[in-house]
Specification:
Blueprint: H1 4-23, H2 41-47, E1 50-52, H3 57-62, E2 66-72, H4 77-95, E3 100-106, H5 111-116, E4 124-129, E5 136-138, H6 145-156, E6 161-162, H7 166-174, E7 178-183, H8 190-202, E8 208-213, H9 217-223, E9 232-237, E10 240-246, H10 252-263, E11 268-270, H11 280-287, E12 295-300, H12 311-322, E13 332-337, H13 343-346, E14 359-363, E15 369-372, H14 379-391, E16 411-413, H15 418-423, E17 429-435, H16 440-455, E18 463-469, E19 488-492, E20 498-501, H17 508-518
Helix pairs in contact: 1-7, 2-4, 4-6, 12-14, 16-17
């Protein structure tokens, strides 16, 4: 185990020393050639770029150690910019003595190759290695020659770079967003083998830079006395002062899981910049979309001024929980400050509920959600919550939008209000329609449903006309409202009867007749009217 105070000091020391070393690194000379402002196929051919066709494509790839095939179309405007980049890339690769060969394919003139690789857009760059025609990578990285050359170097070379000197480490750090360094006693260490496999898998993800050393002193002098004993892996992120360590069993799957979670900012504050047209609700939804990484989110409203809703307080709480051995590298820790988000936006976010702030939510695979409403603002409570979620003793939460503050002529029922508004409502009948937003039948019945609600508006003390969006809410009760198609409509009477409507949903008069026949209240006679 590592002394936390020493570790905290060593994290600061590591960051300061690396920063100082980076400053001393002289930036690479970047190739700039004004003569490449405009290039055509003849220029590229003279530089050594191959013109690939249906006739020579297979043979050229098979004869190469590394081949880049650039697919274009003459009408593609973006391809004109890529031509210039490709010319600069060709010269850069020659300077680096790279074995990679660049090729260019006119997709409009070579239908066999185009069809074989199922090309959908242009420009497209496919990277081939060791003469394998059907094993390749579709390049999705930055469209500049330096990142392309970096990708190719990793594609054909070693996934992890050997560093033995502090100056080599500093140079390495200066050129990578996320630095991952494995520290081992020697190359025979099985932990090094597992690390090498992980590095190979992630090598072409350009945000990572993998290195390894068999000279622990170059890191231990930085990390101080608290440095773990080899083998271990250390991660340094340019966007986060937190230094990450992997000291557990060196198994491929565990290491891959660690690197995904450790890459995330230690405590991520969710939100968007309204001045740039970014929607905080959208950013929060996006953060929850990746179901492969469990998440812990705290939703607060700092505009209240209450101590238990303070952003900095919760950052410290989550940082404390994140450092606990039983919770470290198991979750992505996030904070949402809803104080600056419009309430109608919050209403679309099924996992937060403003009256319950501060709220702690844990999201796992398969869209399973757990939560605490009205959290007390302590690390102990958050840690206990995570422990119980992990061992299965904390009940899952049902998905629900925020309960609407105001209601229209058609009442919006959500997961958290269903029992009170519908199932346990003994003061009036409730007509409830379950719908899935984009379903064709839901659109068709909309006009008749509005018409029905308007015709019964004066009868709201006897019946409510309601709707329930199943895409954003879950029923808190099972076995009572069986829905297999959308829309589906039920009349829940004040006496507790649940009756399914099977008539024409596009005819509001038919629905009205159904209510009169099965409802418990005596409704006034209604006249048909035009909307």
């Amino acid at each position: 185990f590592i002394n936390s105070d020493k570790m905290r000091f060593s994290r600061i020391a590591f960051t300061l020393l690396i920063s100082a070393l980076v400053v001393s690194v002289v930036a690479d000379d970047r190739f700039v050639d004004s003569e490449l402002d405009d290039v055509d196929d003849e220029d590229l051919h003279e530089m050594g770029v191959l013109m690939l066709t249906d006739q020579n494509f297979v043979s050229e790839v098979q004869d190469s150690t590394c081949m880049v095939a650039y697919f274009f179309a003459p009408w593609c405007e973006h391809c004109k910019d890529m031509d210039k980049t490709y010319g600069r890339l060709q010269k850069l690769l020659k300077e680096q003595n790279s074995p990679c060969v660049l090729g260019k394919v006119d997709s409009t003139m070579n239908p066999i190759v185009k069809q074989h690789y199922d090309l959908k857009g242009y420009p497209t760059l496919l990277m081939f290695r060791d003469g394998e025609v059907d094993e390749y990578e579709d390049y999705k990285g930055p469209s500049d020659e330096h990142n392309m050359a970096k990708f190719l170097s990793r594609f054909i070379g070693k996934a992890s770079e050997l560093v033995n000197l502090e100056s080599e480490l500093a140079n390495f750090v200066a050129h990578n967003q996320v630095v991952v360094v494995g520290v081992f006693e020697d190359s025979s260490d099985l932990a090094y083998t597992s690390f090498a496999y992980m590095a190979r898998e992630k090598a072409t993800d350009l945000k990572y830079g993998f290195a390894h050393t068999f000279t622990p002193d170059i890191l231990s002098t930085v990390l101080g006395e608290s440095a773990p004993q080899p083998p271990y892996v250390v991660m340094r992120k340019f966007y986060d002062p937190e230094i990450e360590y992997y000291t557990e069993k060196f198994e491929y799957d565990k290491m891959m899981e660690w690197i995904e979670i450790a890459t995330i900012k230690s405590v991520l504050v969710l939100g968007g910049d309204r001045e740039k047209g970014q929607d905080p609700a959208y950013f929060t939804e996006m953060a929850f979309q990746d179901e492969s990484i469990p998440k812990l989110l705290v939703a607060i409203d700092s505009s209240t001024g209450q101590a238990n809703q303070d952003m900095e307080v919760w950052k410290e709480i989550l940082t404390t929980v994140r450092r606990m051995p039983e919770h470290r590298y198991k979750y992505s820790y996030m904070i949402l400050d809803a104080g600056n988000i419009e309430r109608e936006k919050i209403a679309t976010m099924q996992f937060v509920d403003p009256p319950s702030f501060p709220q702690i939510l844990a999201s796992f695979k398969d869209d399973v959600l757990y939560k605490i409403d009205g959290a007390d603002g302590t690390a102990e409570q958050a840690a206990d919550f995570l422990t119980k979620v992990a061992n299965g003793s904390w009940p899952r939460a049902k998905k629900s939008q925020a309960v609407p503050v105001r209601q229209g002529v058609i009442r919006e029922v959500v997961g958290d209000s269903f029992m009170e508004e519908v199932h346990e409502n003994d003061s009036r009948d409730v007509l409830i329609t379950f719908y899935d937003g984009p379903c064709p039948g839901c659109t068709e019945m909309k006009q008749s449903y509005v018409k029905l609600a308007q015709s019964l508006q004066e009868e709201s003390d006897k019946i409510w006309i309601s709707k329930f969006d199943v895409t954003l809410n879950e029923l808190p009760i099972e076995g009572k409202y069986l829905v297999d198609v959308y829309p589906t409509m039920f009349l829940k009477t004040s006496k507790g009867d649940i009756i399914k409507y099977t008539g024409n949903m596009a005819m509001y008069t038919d629905i009205l007749g159904f209510i009169r026949e099965h409802g418990t209240a005596s409704l006034d006679e209604q006249q048909e009217f035009e909307l």
